[in-house]
Predict the structure.
Amino acid sequence: MPANIEEITRQATTMVRAKTGDPGARISEVSPLPGHAGFGYSFILERTTAGGPSGKLVLRVAPEGVRIAGPADVVRQARIMKSLADTDVPVPPILWYGDEPEFFGRPYFVDGFVDGFKLADITLPRDEARAYARTGIETLAALHRVPWEPRRDAWGSVTELSEEMKRLDHLLDRDTLDPRVVARAPELREKLRSSLPARPRIGIVHGDFQFANVLFKTGKVVAVIDWEISMIGPTLLDLGWICFFSDPASFFQGGSASTSPMTADEIVDIYSKSAGVPISMDEVRWFRAFAGYRFGVITCFNVMLHRRGKRDDPHWEEIALSAPTMFSHGLELLAM
């Protein structure tokens, strides 16, 4: 992490003065933001010249000492969000991005701060929460309607399901994983691999679309955030993912699904109507099982890193309690 808040303040001040052409620009109230893919800060930009951005902004900086790829590629994230600026999917407005060494010594982007709330962070009457959730699912359908071919320069090539499974093999096939957490993961992997959907719909995929990554305000979605693992690929990856996080049966003692005010069946029904494409629960079932496998494998890997002192994050110990359930429920879904 950068040495301290004073250091990031100095670096960010140099950057905003260069980007705005305002030699008197200054920043204040620098505060760290949560997140695992790089480092994030909010800050206030004050200007001495008229025009251009000011007020509360957000800075994301790639972590030091890691290969700039995947979740660490913050410039790619900025390009992706910028490519959606003219669509029905609200994203934070991208102001600047780049990898000039004179600012932070590694890639960064700055976007406008979006004022909103997450469903998990606020208590609402049930009907109001469900109305907000509906707008979230409708936004997911809108994302999948966005033409992806004209945006390939920002997004890259199509990721096939077989490629995504192979990426997870790299995490699962390790002797250092706890076999009690791994549980039936290899069995679920083989079932998934032997039943890959033949011709899934291809489009823009957020990759981590859940209500924790959607900001709401005044009855609508104001921003979809956290585009670290987005891709062009099978769109039902997103639908299976949010269904997974809305299914108490996927978690130990039903935990972690309480953030969703809707069931998986309701989510699929709303999505299907909004997308204008008939989607059956049978069609989604493989992607729900894959979501459990994917998150379970990520859990196995991250709890291993935590226990070995490579990435201190005790929260994964709690999540690891549910990993065996994720794998077993995935097998149940495939057997239906």
Q: What stands out?
A: The CA atoms of residues 18 and 103 lie 9 Å apart.
